[in-house]
Structure formats: C-alpha cells, structure tokens
Amino acid sequence: xxQSGTLTVNNKISYGIGGICDNALYTLSGxxxxxxxxxxxxxxxxxxxxxxxxxxxxxxxxxPFIGFSSDNHISRxxxxxxxxxxxxxxxxxxxxxxxxxINAASWVKAVYYTVMIVLFWTFFSMEFVPxxxxxxxxxxxxxxxxxxxxxxxxxxxxxxxxxxxxxxxxVDWAMNLGRTSxxxxxxxxxxxxxxxxxxxxxxxxxxxxxxxPKDDPEIRRLKEQKKNAPRESxxxxxxxxxxxxxSLLKLKAMRYILAAxxxxxxxxxxxxxxxxxxxxxNLGMSQKAISLIMLIITLSGIAFVPFIERLSAHLDxxxxxxxxxxxxxxxxxxxxxxxxxxxxxxxxxxxxxxxANTCYWQLMPSMxxxxxxxxxxxxxxxxxxSVISFQALSESLCIAIGLQTLGIILDMSGxxxxxxxxxxxxxxxxLMQPESALTWVSHSFTLLPGIFMVLTLIVMLGYPITRDSxxxxxxxxxxxx
Length: 481
Known about the structure:
Growth Hormone, Chain: A; mainly alpha; single chain
C-alpha cells in the first residue's frame, strides 16, 4: 500500500543509493558493451548488436514475471526488498564475466556472450523492477514522488560515473601498467559489478520503512494463507500477467507514457553507444578526453536536478518532461548541419543530451508512480510491480532496437572491426575507418537521437495526467466513498 506524507531525508538517501546500481549497469552496457564486443572481444558488429538485442528481449520477457512476483510476494521486509537483496551478489559476478574476453571460435563467442547477456539482464531486472516499484510504495504525494526520484537521480549520476566515466580511466590506467585491453576491460566489469551490488545491499539494509518485526502475526497469517492456496503454473501465471497488461493498456495515460518512453529510449541507446564510436573514430580523441566528456555529462546531470525539480513544482512535470526533451532534440538536429570538429562541439552536444536525460530519468518514474495510483484506484489492488515491469519491458525492447539498429548501421556503412582497437591504436584508429562509416557514426551522435526526441515531445502532448487532474481524481474518489 502507498504511504502518505513526506519521507525523511534519511529514507530518501537510502532509497537513492540503490539508483547507483541500475545506472552503473545500464550505462556500462549501453555505452561500452557494443564497442567492447566489436573492438576488444572481436565479435562482428551485426552479431554484437544481435547479442545485445537478445539480452534486451530476454529482459522484456523476464521483467513482467519479476514484477508480478514482487506484487504478490509476502515478507516482513515488504514486497520489493527481498528481490533486491537476492540480486546483489549475482550482479557482481555476472557483470565481471560479461566483460571477460575469451579466445575461441566465433560461434563459441556468440554462445558465451549470449548466455552472459541473458544472465546479466535477468539479475538486472530482478533489482530494477522491484527497486522502481518500491518508490511507488513509499509515498503517494504527487510532488514528493518527484523529490524522491530527484534523490535517486543524483545517485544515478554516481552510477553513471562508475559505469560511464571510470571505465575509460580504468582501462587507460591498467594498460599503462602493462595490462592488455582484454585484462583492462575485465577489471572494469569486476569493479562496476561489485560497486553495483554493494549499492543494492546498502540501500536495502538501511531503508527500514515498511519493515515488520520477525514475529509479526499478520505476516505469518498471510504466508500460511499463501502456502495453502493452489499453486499457479508458469502458464497460468503468464496468462495472469497478460490479463494485467491488457488491463493496463486500457489506461490512456499508460499508452502515452509507454510510447513516449520507447521513443526516448531508442534515442538514448543510439546516442549512448554512438558517442563512444564518434569520439574515438571521428575525432580521434584520447581515452582521457573521452573520460572528461563523460564526467561533464555526469556532473551536468547532477547540476540540472534541482532546476528540473523546481520547474516541475511550478510548471508541472509533464510540461518540463516533454519540452526539455523536445528542445534538446530540435537542437541536436540543428547541430548535425554543422561539422563537429573539436572538444567544444562535443561538449555542447553532451550538455543537450544531459538535459534530455535528466528530464527523462528524473520525471518518467515519478509519472509512472502516478499511473500506479490511478490503476490502484480503479482495480482496488496495487499492481505497481506490473506497471513498472510493463514500462521496463518497453525499455528492454527499445534497447534491443537501438543496439541492433546501430550494429546494422555500422555493418552496412562499412565499419571494420578487424582493424586495430582504438584502445591500442589511440587516435590513429580514427583514420582507418571508411568515410561512409564515419558519416553514419556522426548521424548516430546527433541526427537520429534528435529525431526520436522530437517524436517524444509530440506523443507527450496527449498525456492526460497533471497535478490538477490527479487532485480532481482523488477528490472524486474520496467523495464517492
């Protein structure tokens, strides 16, 4: 059940710490997995894109089961926390193995990395869906949800620092010590995985709001009742999940938020992976320079948080969301008309992306929490896990679409993965790729993400939930009782 009123600062910080995990893993895979598989592990671009897409499609399949299970879980620690704790250690191990290079035939590599990516997204879903749903359980206040997600987003940026900024620094440091690029990236996987798992445990163990005593009689009664209830087969559970999903799609707000989320995440995936290729191959930037750009994106994201929160309080989060992302998209398209030839141009593009990214990750979860409230009022039962998993399903599909699209673009434009790795050849690697490949990498850094961001704005014009509309719904619900 949702909890009314404001949360303590300690509760917000504890919840926020968990955001380190999902963004560290999300940015690591979204930014570096494709370039790691192609230039370090030696997997062809189209195959690497397909492997990445398989993992995302699997997350789309497993996420709803996790959401459904967390909605119906009975524990003195609440519905969500047990899943988060259980996922912590496997996340550390699997992330390490995902970035371990094997010397084998192409088909063996394909099998190995496919298995690793499936396991990676399985445990990512096991923490991400319950963690996001947990926020809906903690408060039902319209603006407090945005405040809670503001704390989470600040820690998301710490995760971004771990998953996006530090990898190139770690690789550069390790290679200067005489390590190979393969050994350096394995170290990245180990460090990121351990940091992500530790953040999960710290968040879950320090946020005690909603925890029950060990001998709580109500929990014992519910567990006994569930134990004696008929067990659902996987097939029946799948049918139940589909029924819930079709019920959720009847909500106008859910349809619009899903469409907007999918469009933005395609833009985000193409941009996140494409920027590393652009900075390395088009501009021949060093690892230190790339790390600087990633750091600027991270710090600017943190700097934008209080402004986004204040604007949302005055202008409504729907308006801030759609116009922030839409404006960034228009400017990215305009920038493509100008050649980006140096550090200043890359910084300008990165700041535009940071504005859009902050609007999405700070405000999208808060708007989804509003939808869970509307759904609960209509159905009489909280299905926060299913709502979150439905949105996470769209995220997974869009990551798959984005990565597969970029892999195909690189393949068709003539990108050659057999050329020396930029990690080994430095700026000289930029001169080795054909002009057609460099052109499409540039499109992936500006034009394509910009188009999808503008489409996000257009879709969000029809989104029906605002502060006033939600308050009217609450009053109507209260008067009808």
